[in-house]
Amino acid sequence: MAESVRIERLAAGGDGVGHLPDGLTVFVPRTAPGDVVSVRDVRRRRRHAFALVDSVLEPGPERVEPRCAHFVRDGCGGCQWQHLEPGAQLRAKARIVGDALRRIGKLAVPDPPLVPSPLAFGYRGTVTLAVHGHGGRRTVGLHRGGDARVFQLERCEIAREPLNALWAALSGWVGALPAGDDVRVVLRVTPDDALHVLVRGGERAWAGGPALAAAASVAGLAPTVWWQPEGGAVRRMAGPEADPAAVTFEQVNAGVAAVLRSDLVDAVPHGATRVLDLYAGAGEVGLELAARGAEVVTVELDHRAVRWTEARAAERGLQVRAVAGKVEDAIRGLVPADTVIVNPPRTGLEPAVTAVLRAAPPRRLLYVSCDPATLARDLARLGATPDRLTLVRAYDMFPQTSHAETLVALDRDDCPTAVRRLGAGMVRRDS
Predict the structure, then answer these.
(1) pLDDT tens figures, 179-226
(2) Strands 364-369, 320-324: pairing kind
(3) For residue 133, what is the domain's CATH number?
(4) 76 catalytic, yes or no?
(5) Omega into 336 within 30° of 0, i.e. cis?
(6) What DSSP character marks residue 333?
(7) Which one of 27, 181, 189, 249 has the minimum C-beta count within 10 Å?
(8) Active-site position among 68, 156, 370, 415
């Protein structure tokens, strides 16, 4: 028998939250606050349950018609919130970040301001496609939400339009992809509108790059085609000459990434003489700070990114020490520093890293996070207090999803207490 649920709010991860008739909290994906839905496939746990929508009995005021046919027809897992109007998405993301800081971090702070994306659709500069099956009968597309099944992609509404045109040209040529169960196809358009196709994986040597380039040329497109075998380096297979960094380090939403990077650089005090940039990626932030006169040390596990940082520093005549390795292994030999920047993966900082930063705190710690829960956990481990938390700002890097990036500044107790506004919701102490 179907049960009726009224959705009250949105949870981290994107599910709607309501209560079953017996009072048990239930998480229901693809619902909106105010929806009354009939649910099916209820999976009960001791303290909560999960369920799927059987039908929407009464739509909430924030529900809209999804733009993408795959969202409804195929249950695409790439987006969680195409059924939510844009303002509701922004409010929910700010609340999710604020709730994590209050509940997990024990920080009495308001929901942060959230920088919107200039584009709600057509913003992604990178799309990664899964490959299922064999030969010309392969399915190439995206995963359905909640399982590993792959549906055939026709077009992606959150991708930049040049990527949809590129995929339309290549989709009939899946037989040219390498054999193997681990194959992925990455489509990328850079900020200067150059197109790239990166084929990853495969069981043996691949020679299909020219076929993909030829298929694209019929549509008037000239992508660079790359191949990265399992455990190997990226190599160009066809198309125009290009820097491999173009398919290695580019942000998904270039517009929002540029704003975040600018805010991050601006939040580093101009008087800082020694800056550690940990989990540095290609080192772009560190290069900007070195150009400003700071002594910069970057740490990054990806050796290709480290070499890229070193090459760009040499080109620009900048002094940047680029360390290849794990942050938890390197950090003890690098502190103290005036400013430390961390941009860890979704799992957050290793306990060894937070222990060092708590024992030898910089005057300012700048934390860029893609997961509010691990951010809040790490701030608690670092002994953060609301008074020391002098900058909190969220960024809508991924519209139509429940994900947000967050930038936080944590100042040391002995820093001056004079406060200067940097713009809506951004505060920092001059150091």
Answers:
(1) 988 899 999 999 899 999 999 999 888 999 999 999 999 999 999 999
(2) unpaired
(3) 2.40.50.1070
(4) no
(5) yes
(6) G
(7) 181
(8) 370
pLDDT score of 107 more than 80: yes
The count of domains in the chain is 3
Please, are residues 379 and 420 in contact by the beta-carbon 8 Å criterion? no
The two tokens of residue 163 are 């990527």
Cβ within 8 Å of residue 269, ≥6 positions away: 338, 339, 363, 364, 428, 430, 431
Q: Which residues contact 110 (CB under 8 A, 6 or more apart)?
A: 98
The three-class DSSP label of residue 334 is coil
- Spatial CB neighbours of 73, under 8 Å, sequence gap ≥ 6: none
Sheet holding 16-19, edge to edge: 3-6, 36-44, 48-58, 25-28, 16-19, 9-10
83 domain-assigned = no
Q: Report yes or no: 356 and 340 within 8 Å, Cβ to Cβ.
A: no
Gap between the Cα atoms of 107 and 120, Å rounded: 31
Shared domain check, 225 and 354: no
Q: Are 29 and 146 in contact (CB under 8 A)?
A: yes
Nearest in space to 211 (alpha carbons), one of 192, 227, 194, 231:
227
**Which one, of 304, 357, 295, lies nearest residue 327 by Cα?**
357
One domain, residues 425 and 281: yes
Structure tokens at 381: 């481990």
What ranges make up the beta strands (E) of 272-418?
Answer: 274-278, 295-300, 320-324, 339-342, 364-369, 389-395, 405-411
